[in-house]
């Protein structure tokens, strides 16, 4: 199992993008016919951080926001959720906040239209990464999209170095979004370089495929994927398969499968972020890997049944109640 350091003042710090989700109000129709949206804080690492805070952990964020109303909305929302924003800096170059418009055509057919030109989150400089915050935390989360461009790419490697120096456990949510990357080869190279430095790696089968495009795993075997990382620093590799569930491999040679829960799905996005929050929370409680996966799967089922990602992140009571109801077959 992963051993988390003790005696730190915070549990969790995420580094990466703080953005806005604009989720279609008129669901079950294409974007062309959608005219109103609800605004939420978004960005995968932001969602995970909010999820961790909701579950009761002491959390903080390292990132950069635009010097505009959206940036201030994001910082205020983090603070309202008890998340430390001492590591969130404000851009002064006129960069903007990344937007994700979500299209909910049906509960199984969802897509995201991202507006990410000149976004503030990718302008985080290595010198702006708050070492004190990372030194004081038990778990650092990085997210792949922040590797897409300089200087954010170097800032992530700086954060990884601070985590190594101060003994924080490092989790990597692959969070691959093609929009900001220039070439497949560049993407794979930087993902692999970062993954070598991480203790916990979480991604979908498709995300791992992207990292393995140089032909090392033509059969797309989850076991081959995981075993590669045990030769570096990883102790746990989780491969997610959407509604089909997930599989986790541990360095001791074991593997664990988790089914997804039945859910009244509104939209599919947000599943991965809530799963990551629930899973990582469980690891920090020293639960068994199977229990952590179950908790992550339950958190995901709650979020896919809700309109938002960040705002729907469940509390521990909500997850526990959901699991209890699922076990009794009385799920709402
Ligand atoms: N339709 C669904 N119903 C219930 N749970 C789901 C559904 N889709 C995903 N999940 C849960 O969320 C987890 C992560 O979902 P996945 O789609 O693989 O990640 P991502 O959102 O990163 O693509 C799954 O392992 C599963 O537990
Ligand atoms: O990550 C983004 O910028 C958009 C997210 O806020 C969005 O809601 C989403 O796509 C969630 O991702 P998932 O959990 O991997 O499905």
Automatic annotation (TrEMBL):
According to UniProt, the reaction catalysed is: 5-dehydro-2-deoxy-D-gluconate + ATP = 6-phospho-5-dehydro-2-deoxy-D-gluconate + ADP + H(+)
Q: What is its EC number?
A: 2.7.1.92
The biological pathway it contributes to is: Polyol metabolism; myo-inositol degradation into acetyl-CoA; acetyl-CoA from myo-inositol: step 5/7
> Which SUPFAM superfamilies does this UniProt record tie to the protein?
Ribokinase-like (SSF53613)
Keywords of the record = ATP-binding, Kinase, Nucleotide-binding, Transferase
> Which Pfam families does this entry report, sorted A to Z?
PfkB (PF00294)
Carbohydrate kinase PfkB domain location is 11-315
GO biological process entries: inositol catabolic process
Q: Which GO terms describe its molecular function?
A: 5-dehydro-2-deoxygluconokinase activity; ATP binding
Biological function: Catalyzes the phosphorylation of 5-dehydro-2-deoxy-D-gluconate (2-deoxy-5-keto-D-gluconate or DKG) to 6-phospho-5-dehydro-2-deoxy-D-gluconate (DKGP).
The UniProt family comment states: Belongs to the carbohydrate kinase PfkB family.
Q: Which HAMAP family match?
A: IolC (MF_01668)
Q: What is this protein called?
A: 5-dehydro-2-deoxygluconokinase
- UniProt organism field: Paenibacillus oryzae
